[in-house]
Amino acid sequence: MDVIQQLANMGNEFIGWMQILAVVGAAIGFGIGGFIQIFGGAEGLRKAKPWYIGAGVGLIFVLGSSAIATFLESKITF
Questions:
Q1: Which residues of 48-78 are buried (b: 16+ CB within 10 A; e: fewer)?
Q2: Which of 54, 52, 51 is nearest to 62 (CA)?
Q3: Given 7, 47, 55, 56, which residue has the most CB atoms within 10 angstroms?
Q4: Within 10 Å of residue 40's Cβ, how many Cβ atoms?
Q5: In sequence order, what are the residues at sequence separation of 6 or more whose Cβ sits closer than 8 angstroms to the Cβ of residue 40?
Q6: How far apart are CA 27 and CA 47, in angstroms?
Q7: Tens digits of residue pLDDT in 15-73
Q8: What local confidence, expressed as pLDDT, does residue 56 receive?
Protein backbone atom coordinates (compact mmCIF):
# COMPACT_ATOMS: atom_id res chain seq x y z
CA MET A 1 0.00 0.00 0.00
CA ASP A 2 1.47 3.33 -0.98
CA VAL A 3 1.57 6.53 1.03
CA ILE A 4 -1.23 8.25 -0.86
CA GLN A 5 -3.62 5.36 -0.21
CA GLN A 6 -2.70 5.35 3.48
CA LEU A 7 -3.40 9.09 3.70
CA ALA A 8 -6.75 8.61 1.98
CA ASN A 9 -7.68 5.83 4.40
CA MET A 10 -6.62 7.94 7.35
CA GLY A 11 -8.70 10.87 6.06
CA ASN A 12 -11.78 8.69 5.62
CA GLU A 13 -11.37 7.28 9.12
CA PHE A 14 -11.00 10.79 10.53
CA ILE A 15 -14.19 11.90 8.76
CA GLY A 16 -16.02 8.91 10.24
CA TRP A 17 -14.98 9.86 13.77
CA MET A 18 -15.92 13.50 13.20
CA GLN A 19 -19.37 12.42 12.01
CA ILE A 20 -19.92 10.50 15.23
CA LEU A 21 -18.89 13.53 17.28
CA ALA A 22 -21.09 15.79 15.14
CA VAL A 23 -24.17 13.69 15.82
CA VAL A 24 -23.49 13.86 19.56
CA GLY A 25 -22.83 17.61 19.35
CA ALA A 26 -26.01 18.23 17.36
CA ALA A 27 -28.03 16.24 19.88
CA ILE A 28 -26.60 18.39 22.67
CA GLY A 29 -27.33 21.56 20.68
CA PHE A 30 -30.92 20.52 20.01
CA GLY A 31 -31.29 19.61 23.68
CA ILE A 32 -30.04 22.99 24.84
CA GLY A 33 -32.34 24.69 22.33
CA GLY A 34 -35.29 22.68 23.60
CA PHE A 35 -34.45 23.49 27.20
CA ILE A 36 -34.25 27.20 26.38
CA GLN A 37 -37.52 27.06 24.42
CA ILE A 38 -39.40 25.30 27.19
CA PHE A 39 -38.10 27.37 30.09
CA GLY A 40 -37.43 30.64 28.26
CA GLY A 41 -40.89 32.06 28.69
CA ALA A 42 -42.42 34.21 25.97
CA GLU A 43 -39.05 34.77 24.31
CA GLY A 44 -38.02 31.12 24.47
CA LEU A 45 -38.40 30.30 20.79
CA ARG A 46 -36.53 33.43 19.71
CA LYS A 47 -33.63 32.54 22.01
CA ALA A 48 -33.62 28.87 20.97
CA LYS A 49 -33.62 29.40 17.18
CA PRO A 50 -29.85 30.01 16.93
CA TRP A 51 -29.24 26.71 18.74
CA TYR A 52 -31.52 24.83 16.35
CA ILE A 53 -30.05 26.45 13.25
CA GLY A 54 -26.46 25.97 14.40
CA ALA A 55 -26.94 22.33 15.30
CA GLY A 56 -28.77 21.56 12.06
CA VAL A 57 -26.36 23.36 9.74
CA GLY A 58 -23.33 21.92 11.52
CA LEU A 59 -24.73 18.41 11.29
CA ILE A 60 -25.51 18.76 7.57
CA PHE A 61 -22.06 20.23 6.93
CA VAL A 62 -20.17 17.42 8.68
CA LEU A 63 -22.32 14.61 7.31
CA GLY A 64 -21.98 16.09 3.81
CA SER A 65 -18.20 16.02 4.07
CA SER A 66 -18.26 12.26 3.47
CA ALA A 67 -19.98 12.75 0.12
CA ILE A 68 -17.51 15.48 -0.81
CA ALA A 69 -14.55 13.28 0.14
CA THR A 70 -15.91 10.36 -1.88
CA PHE A 71 -16.46 12.60 -4.89
CA LEU A 72 -12.95 14.04 -4.69
CA GLU A 73 -11.41 10.60 -4.20
CA SER A 74 -13.06 9.34 -7.39
CA LYS A 75 -11.98 12.40 -9.44
CA ILE A 76 -8.40 12.90 -8.24
CA THR A 77 -5.78 10.41 -9.34
CA PHE A 78 -2.04 10.36 -8.70
A1: beebbebbeeebeebeeeeeeeeeeeeeeee
A2: 54
A3: 55
A4: 14
A5: 47, 48
A6: 17
A7: 889 889 999 999 999 999 999 999 998 999 999 999 999 999 999 998 888 888 788 87
A8: 95
